[in-house]
From TrEMBL:
<dbReference type="InterPro" id="IPR048641">
    <property type="entry name" value="RlmN_N"/>
</dbReference>
<keyword id="KW-0411">Iron-sulfur</keyword>
<dbReference type="InterPro" id="IPR058240">
    <property type="entry name" value="rSAM_sf"/>
</dbReference>
<dbReference type="GO" id="GO:0019843">
    <property type="term" value="F:rRNA binding"/>
</dbReference>
<feature type="binding site">
    <location>
        <position position="158"/>
    </location>
    <ligand>
        <name>[4Fe-4S] cluster</name>
    </ligand>
</feature>
<dbReference type="InterPro" id="IPR040072">
    <property type="entry name" value="Methyltransferase_A"/>
</dbReference>
<dbReference type="GO" id="GO:0070040">
    <property type="term" value="F:rRNA (adenine(2503)-C2-)-methyltransferase activity"/>
</dbReference>
<feature type="active site" description="Proton acceptor">
    <location>
        <position position="136"/>
    </location>
</feature>
<dbReference type="GO" id="GO:0000049">
    <property type="term" value="F:tRNA binding"/>
</dbReference>
<keyword id="KW-0004">4Fe-4S</keyword>
<dbReference type="Pfam" id="PF21016">
    <property type="entry name" value="RlmN_N"/>
</dbReference>
<dbReference type="InterPro" id="IPR007197">
    <property type="entry name" value="rSAM"/>
</dbReference>
<dbReference type="InterPro" id="IPR004383">
    <property type="entry name" value="rRNA_lsu_MTrfase_RlmN/Cfr"/>
</dbReference>
<feature type="binding site">
    <location>
        <position position="165"/>
    </location>
    <ligand>
        <name>[4Fe-4S] cluster</name>
    </ligand>
</feature>
<keyword id="KW-0698">rRNA processing</keyword>
<dbReference type="GO" id="GO:0030488">
    <property type="term" value="P:tRNA methylation"/>
</dbReference>
<feature type="binding site">
    <location>
        <begin position="269"/>
        <end position="271"/>
    </location>
    <ligand>
        <name>S-adenosyl-L-methionine</name>
    </ligand>
</feature>
Length: 405
């Protein structure tokens, strides 16, 4: 029996008061997010980056230089289907217009300052943006097939300080802009030469996006949403919403909007099944406790038998890995179309946590599986290059600090 064949989830109706409180909270989150806004896409020389503009904004930019709106479709195709970075390669556009475009615009990419490939072929990119800020992106190939996931960052730093996460020790600097978010994926594809964008069901090497890198994507919702709409546009990169997963620590008020507006897959960094413990491990829980989080999962519009919600659970020895924890986990998520990813903890200097033993991992996984949920143990990838979960950016920061002033 699979979990999804159990009782169908019943979305709890939000009362009028609860709905308006959620709206107030949503507005507060969006206003706070604006305080960490990325720089504009304008270069010091007055040229504007075309990457990261919505179709409407691209049309406005072209009309502003005296071009007809139909050019949008043409240029969109060159940017996102062909992946060109030079106007001179837009062969369906006459040379004088190519030159005019090059005078007014650029086609930006983040600069890859470091690229490391792990023994297991995981590849980590340190990308530098125009203002010198940096974030990491990781490509994790599927070892059995020619495909793989690109793990993308949504913020420089993070506000959330989850205690098991080394990345979370770096405070939030700013949000990444839509151009920087989509740019990470495009630059990773440059590295593998995967242009033009494969159409339809044609296999792709960079076949899925997971918004699981540095930062909390639902605290930068507008830029993330804009970037994902660009990525999903069928005349460009054309990645299906089924191939995109957003991972959140549980920013409940933004989850409904994400589901209804983007319809992408959801992953929840759960990591504990009791509020007292989750308050400690994922401090955001003090604001949005487990009951609210699970209720938001039950009503998540894009979840179905075919598209399960992933519950991420980092296994910490003697902390959250008991059989009682496993039983409580399956009780909590009963009826949700879900799977549980069990993640062995990656120790890092300064952390007191230890990874669960193999035996405990196996016992925990068995209880979850017996309840009908898939519960793969996610073996850490790219450990040798610090590309595994929770390790992002830390090494690059350490290197920076050790440079002479
Ligand atoms: S797990 Fe994610 S949300 Fe939590 S501190 Fe790390 S990067 Fe931030």
């Amino acid at each position: 029996m699979t979990a999804v064949s159990a009782h169908a989830p019943q979305p709890p109706a939000e009362t009028g008061l609860a709905a308006s409180l959620t709206e107030v909270e949503r507005q507060r989150i969006l206003a706070k997010s604006a305080l960490f806004a990325p720089p504009t896409g304008m270069l010091p020389d007055g040229r504007r980056d075309l990457v990261g503009l919505s179709r409407e904004e691209l049309t406005d930019a072209l009309v502003a230089i005296g071009e007809k709106p139909f050019r949008t479709k043409q240029i969109w195709h060159w940017l996102y289907h062909q992946g060109v970075t030079d106007f001179a390669r837009m062969s369906s556009i006459a040379k004088p217009l190519q030159a005019k475009l090059a005078e007014r615009f650029v086609i930006g990419r983040p600069e890859a300052t470091t690229v490391q490939t792990s023994n297991d072929e995981t590849r980590k990119f340190l990308f530098r943006f125009r203002d010198g800020q940096e974030a990491e992106t990781v490509y994790i190939p599927d070892r059995r097939e020619d495909r793989g996931a690109v793990c993308i960052s949504s913020q420089v730093g993070c506000t959330l300080s989850c205690t098991f996460c080394h990345t979370g020790t770096q405070k939030l600097v700013r949000n990444l802009g839509a151009a920087e978010i989509v740019g990470q994926f495009m630059a990773a594809r440059d590295s593998y030469g995967e242009w033009p964008s494969p159409r339809g069901e044609t296999p792709r090497l960079l076949s899925t996006i997971v918004l699981m890198g540095m930062g909390e994507p639902l605290y930068n919702y507008e830029n993330v949403a804009k970037a994902m709409k660009i990525v999903m546009d069928g005349e460009g990169i054309g990645l299906s919403r089924r191939r995109i997963t957003l991972s959140t620590s549980g920013v409940v008020p933004m989850m409904d909007q994400c589901g209804s507006e983007l319809g992408i897959n959801l992953a929840i960094s759960l990591h504990a099944v009791r509020n007292d413990l989750r308050d400690e491990i994922v401090p955001l829980n003090r604001k949005y406790p487990i009951e609210e989080l699970i209720a938001a999962c039950r009503r998540y519009p894009a979840a179905s038998n075919a598209r399960r919600i992933t519950f991420e659970y980092i296994m910490l020895r003697g902390v959250n890995d008991s059989e009682a924890d496993a039983r409580e986990l399956v009780r909590l998520i009963a009826g949700i179309p879900a799977k549980v990813n069990l993640i062995p903890f990656n120790p890092w200097p300064g952390s007191d946590y230890r990874p669960s033993t193999r035996e405990q991992l196996a016992k925990f996984a068995q209880i979850v599986m017996d309840a009908g949920f898939a519960s793969p143990i996610r073996m850490p990838r790219g450990r040798d290059i610090l590309a595994a979960c929770g390790q992002l950016r830390t090494e690059s920061q350490r290197e920076r600090r050790s440079l002479p002033a």
